[in-house]
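Fill in residues.
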């Protein structure tokens, strides 16, 4: 499912953009790039020559460095794509230096042991476990109650949710809700500190945040998400929407008829629509009533249109998706916005078969991969590694059917409607 349309960006709660964050030096490995150029992977730093053939063990040593997302960082691509792309290409060049069958075989075996590939159900399980481990490790390292994770999860219907993820996939609509301080100004720092830890603690060979900006999980504190949801509930649009449904039913809403009204709504979100704009009459009417700020800074007392767009996707994931840690009972969310959001149509997608052609053909990888010759197996694994930082650009022609076609974005019309651009 395309994700670039729901981008919150990285560290944007503090108001930073990819272009104005001070550059992290490659020598200071404790810092996080968040929008700078990728780190350069220098083989000699790890005892590997710059040129010529390398052994399987040497390739594994270099591959282990890719656990840090910094080496494949796409955060600055919108400003310096050609430069960043070249750095990533150079960082992955070691994969082309395995010239001998025994070394390729050793690397393939290591990759399978790490990821669970080609068993895609196992790959998906490890991706979810990687996310939970990163969340819990970040919580432990920050060691303060304000960083306690109340609930974390994702949409539950993406490749991981379907049990068809490749290593290096992301978790669609992933989110983390923290306890926070209870004070909006302080919570901005809490969120950004946790995001930094989450980036550093995630093994991005398994779970990659380098697909687009929205691949990075949304992080909110409890106060932030509760206040944003209350701001939605306070708008007149919510009342008008209820009145509209009531009129269509030609009845008033009392206790008996409320059940009918709820069923009317539930039937609506249970039916998938290819037109995401028509599937979202409430949010499309509602979102443009907030001011457009052209950034993703979270403003809980005067929410922006961008805030409402972003939090809507998270609310829907909390309601319909798979919770991996904690429980949504920790949150006090006004009912109508919480149950009405249908931006990703998760309720409908949960009830129907897989719609994506790429995932249908992936079912056969478990059986096909062992039958391929060694060189084809190795080419496919190189493709998987490159796919973790493809940034919606073409990265394979040989194996294109297993991956999303670059440029596809079903959400684009919906985002334009939400932002008032239609």
């Amino acid at each position: 499912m395309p994700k670039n349309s729901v981008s919150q960006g990285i560290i944007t709660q503090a108001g930073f953009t990819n272009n104005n964050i001070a550059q992290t030096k490659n020598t200071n490995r404790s810092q996080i790039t968040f929008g700078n150029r990728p780190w350069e992977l220098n083989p000699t730093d790890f005892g590997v020559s710059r040129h010529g053939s390398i052994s399987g063990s040497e390739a594994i040593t270099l591959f282990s460095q890719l656990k840090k997302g910094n080496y494949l960082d796409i955060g600055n691509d919108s400003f310096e794509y050609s430069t960043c792309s070249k750095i990533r290409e150079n960082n992955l060049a070691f994969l082309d230096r395995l010239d001998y069958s025994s070394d390729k075989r050793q690397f393939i075996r290591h990759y399978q042991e790490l990821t669970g590939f080609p068993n895609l159900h196992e790959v998906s399980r490890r991706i979810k476990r990687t996310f939970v481990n990163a969340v819990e490790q970040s919580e432990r390292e920050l060691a303060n109650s304000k960083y306690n994770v109340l609930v974390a999860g994702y949409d539950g219907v993406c490749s991981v949710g379907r049990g068809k993820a490749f290593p290096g996939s992301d978790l669609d609509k992933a989110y983390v809700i923290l306890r926070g301080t209870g004070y909006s100004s302080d919570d901005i720092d809490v969120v950004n500190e946790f995001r930094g830890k989450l980036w550093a603690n995630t093994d991005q060979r398994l779970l990659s945040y380098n697909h687009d900006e929205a691949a990075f999980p949304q992080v909110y504190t409890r106060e932030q998400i509760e206040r944003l949801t209350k701001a939605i509930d306070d708008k007149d649009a919510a009342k008008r929407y209820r009145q509209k449904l009531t009129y269509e039913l030609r009845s008033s809403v009392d206790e008996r008829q409320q059940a009918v009204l709820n069923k009317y709504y539930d039937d609506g979100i249970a039916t998938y629509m290819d037109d995401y704009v028509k599937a979202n009459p409430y949010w499309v009417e509602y979102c443009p009533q907030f001011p457009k700020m052209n950034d993703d800074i979270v403003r809980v007392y005067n929410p922006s249109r961008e805030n409402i767009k972003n939090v809507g996707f998270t609310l829907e994931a909390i309601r319909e998706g798979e919770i991996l840690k904690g429980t949504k009972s920790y949150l006090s969310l006004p009912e109508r916005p919480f149950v009405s959001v249908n931006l990703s149509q998760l309720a409908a997608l949960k009830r129907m078969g897989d719609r994506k052609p790429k995932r249908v053909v992936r079912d056969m990888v478990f059986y096909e991969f062992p039958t391929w010759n060694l060189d084809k197996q190795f080419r496919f694994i190189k493709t998987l590694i490159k796919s973790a930082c493809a940034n919606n650009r073409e990265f394979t022609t040989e194996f294109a059917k297993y991956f999303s076609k670059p440029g596809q974005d079903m959400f684009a019309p919906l985002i334009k409607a939400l932002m008032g651009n239609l």
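Residues 1-34 have pLDDT under 50 and may be disordered.
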